Structures
1.
Amino acid sequence: MSARLHLPTGWVTFVFTDIEGSTRLAQLLGPGYRPVLAEHHRLLRRTIAATEGAELLTEGDSFFLAFGDASAALTACLSAQRALADHEWPTPEAAPRVRMGLHTGWAEPRDGEYASPEVHRAARVAAAAHGGQVLCSAATAWRAEPLPAGASLLDLGLHRLRGFDDRERLFQLVAPGLERQFPRPRTADAVAHNLPIQVTSFVGRQAERVELRQLVAGHRLVTVLGAGGGGKTRLAVELATDLVEQYPDGVWFVDIAAVTDPGLVAFAIAAVLGLRPEPGRPMVDTLVEYAAARRMLIVLDTCDAQPAACADVVSRLLAGGNGVRVLATTREPLALPGEVVWRIPPLSVDPSPDGTESDAVALLLDRTTAARGGREPDPAESADLRRVVRRLDGLPLAIELAAARLRVLSVGQLAERLDDVLGTLDAGRDDPQPPVDPDQADSQREPDPAPAAPRASPPAQANRAGTRSAAERHLTMQATVTWSYRTLGPRAARLLRWLAVFAGPVELPTVEWMLGDDPLDPLSVLVDKSLVLAEPQVAGGTYRMLDPIRAYAARRLAEAGEEEAARNRHVAWSQHALERAHLGPNGQPVTLSLYALDPLAGELRAALRWCATGGSARTGLRLAGGLDQWWRERGLAREGRLWLFRLYGRLAETGEAVPEGELAAAYHMHSLHAGADGEFAEELRYSQRAEAAARQAGDAGLLARVLAGRAAPLFDMGQFAEAERVCREVIDWAHEQGVDSEALFAVLRLAELLWRRGALDEAAELLGAARPVEASRPVDRGRRSVDMLLGMVALARGDLVAAHEHLLAALRSRMNHGFHGRACDTLNAIAVRCAAGGEALTAARLFGAAQATRAGLRSASGIYDAYWAEQQTRLRRVLGDTAFDEAYGEGTELGLDEAVELALGVEHPDLAADSARFAAQAGGIVPRQPTATADRHTGHA
């Protein structure tokens, strides 16, 4: 028909079509392009004729059509696209991809043509489309009734068409036989970024943002590395949002987790940039050519989903032009030249220097408030909030999941349940990604990229297949860690499982000892994949797992049937480490330092837990014995008792045989713990059990040590004369048996009793004889109990010079070797010496510091407490209430190290016999002998 004779008037729907990438297609096909173009013309004219559309202009591969009915125009476009898709072209690469645009407006033809801005608007709608896509304006959508059978219109939002000031709402025709997934429309107002819009506030990370921004400014490839759930994506998006104005060609976010095949990585990036495949040309070449002349930042998220393919594309992009920068997030490096790897740290769990809450607590507060409908946690929950974030190692995803649990739990309840980290955080959610056996991981890795572009739209394939899994991998901690675990080979997976038995950081020799093999290769894999954190130290690096990852690995350890072997190996290592803490480099015993036990405490607790639940209770008793003094000096006597009770229960459960001598040592230790914890009936009961077991063992030295401890419960129950009698009998019996040194505790207890009743000369003589015995015993000499007691005797005599020298010697040794509980008594004694020497304010500060530290250690009252209270009352009378309270309060603000520094800085008294510091001063403190009204509670010099 003649278009010039049948041009519609009034509300006319204009249609423009052309072949996307026609120039490239012509170059590819050469002489074969002409028949393809002719077939394209024939198919479009056939559909136009069927709907009575008017063909106004045909030029090259372009059509300009006019329809009197909008519905008919959409039907024609739908039919044309289906005809193009169903046609058998010479080769798949020869198939033309046609884009179509429709707009409806009022128009009247003149001289066989339309002179109307509506025609230009229709052309701009078509220019916004992609090959295979049909776009229409809102005017066409409003008048296109009815739509073709099975078809619908997808609202793509408002867009500003090139050359027009207003915004046009665009719709995409969706119907069976048409592609659905396309890049964003090519319009003038295409935003300079596609960064995801966040629905929650961004909390903390100020220092990290500054540091990362500097790296991106100075380097073209920056990789943010970290464990799953560590906040890599959120930090990268926040940073990229700040940088939008610096990149005129945009900041573009690409989620590689949604890419199901390595060959589709380049397509995913191209789709975000609005690029489509060109016939016969690799997509990566199209991508590189496009980016070469542009200045843009590409944020590649979750590159570990396709690490090799990402590395290849990034390498090509960076080599293709100077204006492209890449910010990648991943769990393992891309290993490219010029790559700057920045490991994202967990959120800080320690309060800021200005007193504000840590980033981790701030995040938990924010998310908890949201979870509770805007109601902020009660200030009384602050301590438990800190416990939770420390237990979760500041891992953002774990904190987010924990906040969700606070809809139904109090913070305290949540903190108590975090021994089962995964079970608590993932409660109520199914693991969407079942675990994969790492032994078969190689068979599940993605295939190599295909050299040829797929026929269907690759971004559409990737989005359809991968979006769900990309979102679900962070629904649970289980899914998050499984994402990385499934990529491990057998050796790395086994090492991860076995490292789960450690409670804290480990050194390389420890890993080697544990594995029984060179661990460098599998350990490097775990570090690269951010499942293990490497923490460089001057003396050598350490390696640790975040607690949620450790909990996951522990589950896998049990499922692999390896738990018993791994935990027994860990117990053996713990026992070995405990023995080494008591020995010097030459293998000989050295003075016990509790500081050597501090870093082992977490591992020993883990080992004890296994001994009490699935391992050897006998070995557990030995481990507990190695921590004997540590429990009490760290204010943890109650914890020590609980471990012993658990081990007794394990013995009863398994019937494991334990020699009487080992039981006697355990009962003796238990008695001392009970006394320090104020459980005096329990103290006596276990003292009696220890004696019975020691007699059965027939070990004189052991029996001497146990009998020496019998005085403590007697003293605690107020039986002072009986306690003194027991001490003397033990000392005499030990001498007869030739085990004098094993009765040292009885000697020290007797000296305390003599000091208490004022028998100072006998006490001093007894202590003088005990000094070489104490010096010969590595487990005892660091306490310098002899010097402490001689200092107390000197104070009672009014000899400030002797008191000063003995007490400072005791304090130095006790602090040097980690005896913090005993150091508090020494600080009190030095406070008495200061008060007697005229340094009243210093005395009050030291009293306050000692009390604050003892309260933190939860120490029970000691033998000297009544004496300290009496001396403080005298000092208060000298200073007055206001001055005393102020100085005492200043002391409570001091840490133990600061208080010790203050005490050691006290000036030595004059050595002259007539010094005023030896005489009573008017209104001053006069040292006095203790009376029989001294405190009845236990204490150990």
2.
Amino acid sequence: MRKAELFRELQLLLCLLAGALLAGCAEPAKTPAYRIGFSQCSTSGPWREAMLNGINRELSFHPEVQLRTTDAHDNSDLQQQQIRKLVQGGLDLLIVSPYEAGPVTPAVEEAYAQGIPVLLLDRRTASQRYTAYVGGDNLEVGQTAARYGARLLGRPQGEVVEILGTPGSSATSERHQGFAEGLKVFPGLRVVAQVNGNWQEKTLKPALLAALRAHPNVALIFAHNDAMGRGAYEVCQQLRLAGKVRIIGVDGLVGKGEGIDLVQRGILDASILYSPGGEDAMRTALKILNKQPYDKENTLGTIVIDSTNVLTLQQQTDKMASQQHDIERQQGLLQRLRATYASQQTILYGLLTTLLGALLLGALAWHSARKNRQINRQLALRNAENDKINQQLQQQNEEIRLQRNQLEALAEQSRADTEAKLRFFTNFSHELRTPLTLILGPVEELLTSTPDLTAAQHQDLALVRRNTQRLLQLVNQLLDFRKIEVGKMAVRATYGNLVAFVREIVDAFEKPARLRGVQLRFLAAEPELLAWFDGNILDKVFFNLLSNALKFTPEQGRITISLQASPDGQGLRVSIADTGRGISDQDQAHIFEWFYQGDQGAVAKGSGMGLALAQGLVRLHQGQLTFSSQAGQGSTFVVALPRELPEALCSTSEAPTASFLLDEPEAIAATFSPELEATTAAPADGGSETLVLVIEDNAEVNDFLARRLRTDFRVQSATDGHTGFRMATDLIPDLIVCDVMMPGLSGLEVVTQLRADWRTSHIPVVLLTARSAPEQQVEGVQAGADLYLTKPFNPTFLLESVRTLLANRARQREHFRRELSVDTATVATNPDQKFLADLTAIVEAHLTRTDLSVEDIARSLGISRMQLYRKVKAVLGTGVTDFIQNLRLTKARELLLDDALSIATVAYELGFSSPSYFSTSFKGRYQISPSEFRALHITPHH
């Protein structure tokens, strides 16, 4: 006992000695006075580097401040995560330069709510919950560029090209908005083209080259930053327009190749100063931390840098750079002195620590020897206890293994039983389809072909048809479920516009929603969102989700369908939100289970298959179906789909339309309004490729016209002018039959808009109306109608008139084709010739590209691939690919007359992949090889 007490006293004495030595020699560790986090949307690019350099320059005067910087690489999701991580690490102040205002707002508000001052730099968030803002005024930058551009040209008129930054960036949109507002004062200045440069000089060059070739009279280029201005100058040099086109950039940074240098060298006519604001931001941050007065809004001024002031600015910046260099050199000397002092201090601490360590190790060695003997005795006892525990664990593991085998056997038996049930239901469903078809067929025939039915008989037959369709829908859902379970349902994805596809499905629910007093809204973030998708699968998904929403939404309720791209741009999200009764917490865990019905209240119970089928189909489509709901406040179902699918699931056919819209538009209405008589349209004739669009607000007349025309043509229908015009621009039909008196957009207004739009200007239009006065008929013909028929009209005469108009259109196509083959530079005297002139110009500008595709041309014209195909087919009677090939071969005849060019050179100049393919194509078109053609048309030199 006495030895143990002596040992403890020795330990205490050594510890006290060590503490006294360290306390006397060591100076307190320096902790930063302030910790500042800086969340950058990106650190790449000269402007962002200038911002960070400005912050570091100001911090060089405040060594007590610790700065932590993150780079989000222009990714909003990543920036949110980085902001939250900075806050978790402990901050006294947060500086944020957002990439996008909306996505990062929640993370910024969380930091502000925790009492951390938030300083926004360069860009704002979507909230007012911040401490201060420092940055330039992008609207003022755009307006200044417009005013200076007008003054630079000497006359406020001319053609202008605007080079934009990244689409969706707040800087891009605000500079564009300011430039557009500034040009309103100068109506003579007209923006003839906009080019997306994504802030990079290389990105814009192909598009700007095409724009300047299409508009050779451009006098001014406004680039959203100096780098893109430098790229514009290089394009102008290539086109020999340097000195003729004035170029204005933005940023006005210091350094070789930056704004001030470019103005001084005459590459840019001017640069609008947009200060990075690094020093101003750090000064404001230190005022906030030091409880000094500061301004919440700190808008940095801008000036125009041109030949009148660029030399003065360059001299000022050179002087500032020299002063900053001197400061940095003095700080470097001070740091070296501090490092020398710190190293000597470290050596002293090391010697003292070594001495104390030697004393402690000696004491511990003696104490450890005694402890080891005690530990060995305790280990022997514990090993015996562990052996006993291991035996018990082995027995328990054996029992668990037996129980697991029993559970697996039960699960296998359950799967077998379920498979047997599904096999029974599937076989039974197949047996039901034949009698259902035999019931539905005669009922349809009686309803559509028997004129002497009484009202009661007609109502009874409509009831039989409606319930037969419901039963057939349940059978089809059960068969789809079986296909998913056994992996027999395949995805056949095509590339198309998901916005148009979903809109067609929503339009089918508009009438039943209106009859029930439910407001149906469709909101798309963009008019066109392209993706690979299978329409046969997705129409079942959206049909089930919309059916449920309409079923559970009360009168005066609201259903909102929204469609937008995911934040990363790799997927699309379709959400269906209703204001119904919501889903109880008990049902939420089971709503995607097959045949689960839950508590549906006063609403008629369904089959319990709709949501389960929808989820299975979405998963099959490699997407995800989720929902959120609150009892009494409605539900929201979200379908997330990828824009790209594996190549094995994709086909090259045209994008699908909603299949059920072609078969049972009124059956949907009958599902929710039993009093409504449902009518099923006759199937379109499969042998005709000619598409006729019927626009008629009277449902009976619309149905009559469609049935009469379907004997010879494919038919699509619209019940109002707005929908009809939209379908005409989407489908590009071969002919349109339109009523005159319609609510909203009249038939005359529809014709006027069709003729004004080059996509539809070629389509023959037949107007039907009860207005028979001669002046009214003249009004219809003046609006652009090809034929004006008054009601009542002879159906046979209508059908023959349609055939005659289509034949005349075919002769006009042949005329255009001959005219185009003779002279591709025909003056555009009507919309069709203007379309051909624009199409020819785009193709000729890219003739050298071997990979020129229909999608590239459609994108240049601002239309979809399907619209381009149908327009070219309607005007020329040929496909787009054939048109490109014919234009190349026509151009080849001109180039072959130049004996300085070899046949291989001509082939590659016109975009052919090889000379042999060129020769084969030329001979197939003109029945003569290129060499033979040249020999016939070029006189040999003697």
